[in-house]
Amino acid sequence: xxxxxxxxxxVGKTSTVRELQALLPGSAVYDxxxxxxxxxxxxxxxxxxxxRDFQDLAAWRxxxxxxxxALLAELPGPLIVPMTLLRQDYRDEIFGALxxxxxxxxxxxLHAEETILRKRIEADETESARAxxxxxxxxxxxxxxxxxxxxDAVVVDxxxxxxxxxxxxxxxxxxxGAARCPIVDDSVHTRDTLAAAVLLFDDxxxxxxxxxxxKPGWEFPGGVVEDAERPSLGATREIAEELGxxxxxxxxxxxxxxxxPHRGPRSGGVRLVFDGGRLTAEQRAAIVLPARELxxxxxxxxxxxxxxLPDNKRRRLAAALRARAAGETRYLEAGQDPDGR
Length: 341
Prior knowledge:
Oligomer: single chain
Distance between the termini: 50 Å
Shape: elongated
CATH class of the largest domain: Alpha Beta
CATH superfamily of the largest domain: P-loop containing nucleotide triphosphate hydrolases
Largest sheet: 5 strands, parallel
CATH architecture of the largest domain: 3-Layer(aba) Sandwich
Number of domains: 2
CATH topology of the largest domain: Rossmann fold
Strand order of the largest sheet: 2-3-1-4-5
Helix content: 40-55%
Structural class: alpha/beta
Strand content: 15-25%
């Protein structure tokens, strides 16, 4: 189990976690900042210096959950993680990797109003003036992140609390299970997979995308085809599980088969894209998302999906839409037509 104690810099995570460790038997504190400091020595200076924050390094976001899993294999109790995590896509990536290893995550955010935070930071003489300014500069990012943090975590307002009292509240919250993240245990495949996506459209021919809670970014509805499962059946099964929509496999038409090189977790293998057609108003109104798997869904125009999707999926969708318009099926490799079309 992990208790992730989030919150902006200066809110009191370190002192609260020190008290919390005494309240959770067998617990240990794991600060992912040590991963960032290690990467400073392990990566070439030009690579480490190319980002303003070590959280922007993919290596950091992969090593943080991997190290947590390794530590939990050695330690008897929960890990307490005092770490500011303000980007929701980074939360999805890290928490999704932990969930894939069957690690339960309790997410708590320590909060204080900005005026209180500023006073605390400015009065902290244990930090240099540069460090204090760095903390002050990050208050705006915290305010921007508050809407998703308040939806994802249990918030503990520390304005009038001692670190001990805040820790007691967190211990009670963990014991109740109120802060446990409802996130699907989606295994991270280490070998190539066969996956099937379904493109669904509204009356304006906008395409439906979904926002998973267990990995960063937006996606097409669909998922990995199970062993010995027909791809068309796997596609319709995933649509039923993700959206609550029943589609007949014979309604689907294959638009694209795209071979994707293995670049890391959840990538590598053959990606099939089927045309599922237009959804009626009744079908659109009846969409139900599984909270443990999907945060939201929306129909998007080309201008929107070009902004939301990464390069490989953007190329795949563009090719699928061209194939749909032409009544064709296309084969791609890494999102590119081998014939150059």
